[in-house]
Structure formats: structure tokens, C-alpha cells
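Pasting as-is:
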Amino acid sequence: MLDNFLPIDLIKKNLSIIYKKKKSYIVTIFSSLFIAVIMFYFTDYKLTVGNMGLIHANVEIFFQFLIMIFFGINIGVLSYRLMHTNEVSIKSKGSTTLGSIFGIIVSGCPLCGITIASYLGLSSLIATLPFFGLELKVIGILLLLYSTITLLNKPFTCTIPKSKSKKKSNEKNK
């Protein structure tokens, strides 16, 4: 079952195809930096350490780095797919968007820092969660991973079904 969803060989092959192009690296790096600037702007590390503790603050920073990396890869794959195949599922676009939103909204300590969550009035909701928003970061990471794997599962080359190609060649020969 997992092999159907996660064909490692196909994912490696498609990643190597994507990152043969210099443009893919540039898109990945800039999108990672873009999301990093947003997330780390709203994170007050000292305040988070003071209120939540060192372990919580370090786990939060680690999750932010993961979101930054996966977001960059996801946008790189998505842009390549849009430029070369013009075929992207709504599911992939939606999970990329949701993963990014979850990651950005809970950047920083939702109770003490200046976060987007507090601007939207969601701080009290996030404060009721047992890990104070880290759960939402994990959900964001999982959504970004799902979106990336979904985008990489499909081959990037056009394939012609054998039955149709045989029919066409037989019709041309007649």
C-alpha cells in the first residue's frame, strides 16, 4: 500500500529531472527564503524561551526550518510542473496552500509574540491546544509533504497509450 503512494524510485527520478534546471534551484531558494522571512519576522525567540521554555522554542524553530525547506521544494516542483506539463491537481495546490498557511499562522509563540495568529484573533484558540500551536506546524509539514509527494508521483513525460497508438498506425497504413 505504501509502495503505491510512495514510489521512491519515481520520486528520485522526478526530483533529478526538476533540479537539472537552474531555474528550479532559484525558485526553490527564493520561495524558501520568502517563507523564512515571514516566519522568522513574527518569531521572538527570547520571548518564546522565556514563556514556553528552551525545548519548546527549539522544537518550534526546527519545525519552522522544515516548513521552510518543504515549502521551497514544493513551490519548485509546482512551478516546474506548471511550466512544463501545465497539469496540476487541485488537491496538490490546496495542500500546498493549507500547509503554508498553517506554518505561517502559528509562527512564533501564539501567546506572547507578534504573530499573524494574534492579528487574526486566533491566539486564544491556539492557546487551548496542548502544545500551543506546534500541532498545527506538524499538520502544515505533513500537508506540504503530501503535496510534494503527490506532485512527484506522476511522471513528467507525456505517454501515449499503446492501444491508441496501434489503432492510429493501423489506420494510417490502410
